[in-house]
Amino acid sequence: MKIKTLRFPLAFIAFLVAHYQFKFVDNDIAFYIVAGVLGVGAMWPLVQLGIRWKLSRTTPEFNLEKLINKVPKVELGSADARLAGLSESLYMVTETTSNAPECYINSLEILDLDDKETKKVLGYSIESSWDISNRAQAVQQIEALITEADEEASLTLADVPDVLRTRFQRYLAKYGSTLQPQGNECMTAYNLIRASWLARATFSCGHLDEPTARAYVEQVGRLIPQHFASWNDLAVSYLFGFLHWSDFLNDSALGVMKEYSIRERICGAELLLCAQNSPFYGKSLR
């Protein structure tokens, strides 16, 4: 175990020993405050170990039926919009492992628009994760994702450093993926899929109107077949993008979920590419 992990437990023990030997904290309230802060900090590494242990023994259980909105209120309509929605399955499939109700891929809404409480929770989630609480912020973030994808359209897997490519292939093998990266996959899927999802999500919680959200989803649906020849190519690009993004979790409280999240994404993509009840089955990307 790293010293960094032990610093709070060591500080907690040192504080207690020093206090009981030298009584250097005269005020009981001050003592309990300091001891409480250090105690919580001391417990967190142990809590993290417990969570990691539990998640390492948890197999994601996907329910592909949850992806389909049987009574959509706002149809996706065009072929471009439907393709964008299908592509979002690479993310949305991970939502089917929990009780999360917002995982529809075949309608402009990602959840039941009549469920006000779920819409409110989605709004809070988007605000905390994306710093979006209004139309202007939603438009700015969606356009930034699409612009970044457009600017990186010429970047392929072969262009990334060998160490990152090797790590990616090891993760695929570790979690039983049959994907075989070729190196010519465009590296834009992660941003494009997030842009499409964010357009539908911000429509669902009321930040975007229908025409604006639909326009962004259709734009993504036009770009995807320009960048990718197959679902396999799209999956390779998306998974690599997610793996790269997940490195930013290392120093956050969500870092404890990193390995499980990677496993969930890879296993979910494998299911989408292979299962006969997958929304990808029988459909061409182009």
Describe this structure in words.
The structure is a single chain. By secondary structure, the protein is mostly helical. Helix content is 61%, strand content 0%. It has eleven helices and no strands. Helix 10 packs antiparallel against helix 11. The longest helix is centred in the N-terminal third of the chain and has 29 residues, at 28-56. It is globular, with a radius of gyration of 22 Å.
Biggest beta-sheet profile: none
Number of helices: 11
- Rg, alpha carbons: 22 Å
What is the tally of beta strands?
0
Q: Indicate how many domains the architecture comprises.
A: 2
Q: Report how far the terminal alpha carbons are from each other.
A: 50 Å
Topology order in helix (H) and strand (E) letters: HHHHHHHHHHH
Q: Pairing-aware structural class of the strands and helices? A: mainly alpha
Query: Are there runs of 5+ residues with pLDDT below 50, and where?
Result: 1-6, 10-22
Summarize the structure.
The chain has 286 residues and is an all-alpha fold. Helices cover 61% and strands 0% of the residues. The longest helix has 29 residues, at 28-56.
Name the features.
286 residues, mainly alpha, 2 domains, 11 helices, globular, disordered N terminus, membrane, transmembrane helix, DUF1266, transmembrane
